User: What shape does this take?
Amino acid sequence: MTSHQIALVKESFEKIRPAAQSAGELFYLNLFEMAPQARALFKTPIPEQAGKLMYTLSYVVNHLHTPETIMDDVRRLAIKHHNYGASPGHYEIVGMALLKTLSQGLADIWDNELEEAWKAAYAMVANAMRSASLEHEKLAA
Ligand code: HEM
Assistant: This one.
C-alpha cells in the first residue's frame, strides 16, 4: 500500500468508528445476502461477532504503517478461521461484503481511490490469512 492509501483508509475509518457496531452488523447482513450458505458457520450472536470484527478491523487499521508487527496475530486468527471452516474462496466474498458495507457507510466520500485503498488493505490481511491457513493445512497433513 502507498502512504497515501494508508492515510485514506485511516481517515475514512475514523468516520466509521462512532457507528462501528452498526457498521459491523450491516457487514454480516451484506455477507449473508451474498453468501447465505456462510450463515451456518457463525455460532456467536451477530451483535457480539460484529463487535469482534470491528475491534480487529480497528487493530489492523491502526497498524497499517507497521503490518509486520501484527503478522503473528493475523496468522493466529487465520488458524482459528481454518478451524471455523473458512475456505480460501470465502475470503473473496468477505472482501466484497466489506467493500459494500464501507461504500454504504462512507457513501458521501466513497470514490474509486478510496475503494482501491480499502481493497489493498483487505488484500494485505486476507492474503496473509490465506497463506497462513494453507501453511497450517500442509503442516497438519
Ligand atoms: C480479513 C478477514 C477476516 C477478519 C479480519 C475476520 C475477523 C474475525 C474475528 C475477529 C473473529 C472472532 C474470533 C474470536 O472469537 O476469537 C472471527 C470469527 C469468525 N469468522 Fe472471521 N474474519 C475474516 C474473514 C473470515 C472469512 C473469509 C470467513 C468465512 C466465511 C470468516 C468466518 C468466521 C467465522 C465462522 C467465525 C466464528 C464465528 C463464531 O464464533 O461463531 N471470517 N472473524
User: Anything to note?
Assistant: The helical segments are 3-16, 20-34, 46-62, 71-84, 90-105, 112-140.
